[in-house]
Amino acid sequence: MAQDKQTLLVALLQMDITIGEPEVNFLRLEKMLHEAVIEEVRPDVIVIPEMWNTGYALDRIHELADDDGVRTKQFLSDFAKEHKVNIIGGSIADKREERIYNTIYAFDRQGQCMAEYSKIHLFRLMDEEKYLHSGDALGRFELEGVPAGAMICYDIRFPELSRKLALEGAQILFVPAEWPHPRLHHWRTLLMARAIENQMYVVSCNRVGTSGTTSFFGHSMIINPWGEVIVEGDETESILFGEIELTEVEKVRKTIPIFEDRRPHLY
Ligand SMILES: O=C(O)CCC(=O)C(=O)O
Known about the structure:
Belongs to the carbon-nitrogen hydrolase superfamily. NIT1/NIT2 family. The chain has helices at about 20-40, 60-65, 70-85, 130, 160-165, 185-200, 245-255, 260, and strands at about 5-15, 45, 65, 85-90, 90-95, 100-105, 115-120, 140-145, 145-150, 170-175, 200-205, 210, 215, 220-225, 230, 240-245.
């Protein structure tokens, strides 16, 4: 498909999430979605954090997860269509055949599903592997004709994954997350590295607020293919806007042609 737009305005919904309370979280998200589109500058793409429906209520996740993601898909698709905006729908806990997954649904401006990706690396430090099943497919899709990829939180610690998406053409990598203190340094460094090594845009959206003793620091970021930060949040609930200039990807890839210089037969 031809690349339609050279510039995409992105809105990051850096929201708080109430653990174990999907109703509260749906209302909060709905309010923020409306705030994002009534801004004078209307975004082309909206991004939401990880597990925004339930938070990490893992001990009650079977009861709380969205059955086949039906409610979430309807909600996001309707909003995308009504407001003619692309949505990378964070991720939610969804239930399929009695298994729980951590899944991103992405919708285009017509409300059509562009991508469905379930987190493939489960984070043991938060016991994800005890409650969740991992996905077994990559998150590739086209956003307005632009090849893109999606991964979730802990996935960014696996450079092979973003490299594979880049080799398959991805120019933008979306990363919904629930990444907590005390690892802000890891978060920033890993996102930066993924952008620089793959010469792609990295668009991350992390939650804020606390659940029990865990506090989440936000710092959602858009990083360009040269590793420069276009926008970065602080630790407060907020909507951040930043622009992606798609021509930057080709410019950086021409300046330092790493994809031509790779020696994959040696590694
Ligand atoms: O890798 C990390 O430090 C955080 C990962 C995480 O919180 C998650 O995947 O949910």
